[in-house]
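Predict fold of Glycosyltransferase family 4 protein; 401 aa.
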Amino acid sequence: MRILFLHTNFPAQYRHVAQALASVSNNQVVFATKNQDVSLPGVYKAIFEPSRNPHPSTHHYVRPLESAVLHGQAVYKIAEQLKAQKFIPDVICGHSGWGPTLFVKDAFPNTPLICYFEWFYHARGSDADFDPTDPLNVDDIARIRIKNAPILIDLYSCDRGLSPTFWQRAQFPPEFHSKISVLHDGVDTEYFKPQPGAKLVLPNLDLSGVDELVTYVARGMEPYRGFPQFIEAIAYIQERRPNCHVVIVGSERVCYGKCLPDGTSYKEFMLKKVPLDLWRVHFTGSLPYNQYLQVIQASSVHVYLTRPFVLSWSMIEAMSTGCLVLGSNTAPVAEVIQDGKNGLLVDFFAPQQIADRVDEVLNHPTRMAELRAKARETVLERYALADLLPKHLEMIKSIAG
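Predicted 3D structure, encoded as C-alpha cells:
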C-alpha cells in the first residue's frame, strides 16, 4: 500500500500511524511537510515551502485563506513530482485547515482523502467569546467566519474525516457529522505510566527534596491555556504552603489567540503584576519527552486550564501517568474528567478556587489515590494507543480499499 501524509508540521498527529505503516515492508509511506528537522524510520519526507507569504495588501480577513492556497499550491507541486516518480498513493491522510489538503484531490483524483478535522471556528459559543474581558468586535466576528473557508472546502472534497474528541467534532456543521468519525490519536500508556515515589531531577533542576509539587504544561504561556489565572493561583498557593514548588513547562510565546499589543510576553506581564517567590517557581521552557514525562510522574497535582478549544495531549498523558489532574470546567476537559471521580474540575476564571482545590489534593493524599487510579483507568479504557492505533490503521486500509 502507498500512503501519502500531509501536515505542515512533522510528524504531529500522524507519528504513530505513519511509523506503524512504515514498519510493514510492502508499504511505501511519503510525508509531505515543511518540517525538515525530524525523521521517522521508513518514512520518506517530501519537503514543501509556499512560494511566498500572504501579501500585506490582502484584506486581513482573507490572509489565512491566501496562506492556505499558497500551501496547497506547494503541495500540488510536490504531488506532480511524486507522480513523475511513479508514486500514486492508495490513500491520502491530511490535516485540514492550513491548506496542504486543498488541491490534493485535483492532483490525485482517484485517491481517497481522509482529513483530520481538529477545529471549526465560531465567533460565539466556544473559545473566541469565552473571556468576558476580551470582547469581540465586528472585525473579529467576520474574520473568524472566513477562517473556515479552507476547512469547508476539505469537508466537501474529502472522502472521510476524523476528529479526536466528540467536543471537537461538535464544532463542525451538523450536516457533515456523518462524514467525521471520532477517533482520538491515542496515548502510549506503556510510556506514560505511573512511577510510584518519583522525584523530579532534571539536568538543571533538582527537586528531589520537594514533597509538594504543582505542575503546569502548555506549548505557550497564553490566556487560551489559562496561564494568567494559573500565575494568580500560585500567589495564593505560596501564601498557604511554604514548602510547595511549582514547575511550568512551555515556551514564552503565544500559540493560540492574541499577543499583547506592546510585544511583552504573558510571562513578563504576569510576573510584574503578581509578586511571587520565584525561588519556588521553576520555568523549564519546552522539554524533550523523557524530561516532560519525569515532570508529570513526579507531580503532586497537575493543573490543566483551557478555553473551550482543542484538548491538549498533555492532559490525557498526565492522567495516564496516574497524575491528579485539576482541570478547568470547560467542555473539552469535562468530556474526559468527571469531578471527584477521575480528577477535579475548577472554574477557569477563579485563581483562588484553583488554590483551594490544590489544597484539597495536598491535604488528602489517601482520598486522591483513588482518583489517580481512576484517571489512568479512564485512559486505558478510552484513549490507549494500543487499542486506537489498530482502528486508525483499519480505517486507512478500508478507505484505501
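The domain at 2-186+385-400 is CATH 3.40.50.2000 (Rossmann fold).
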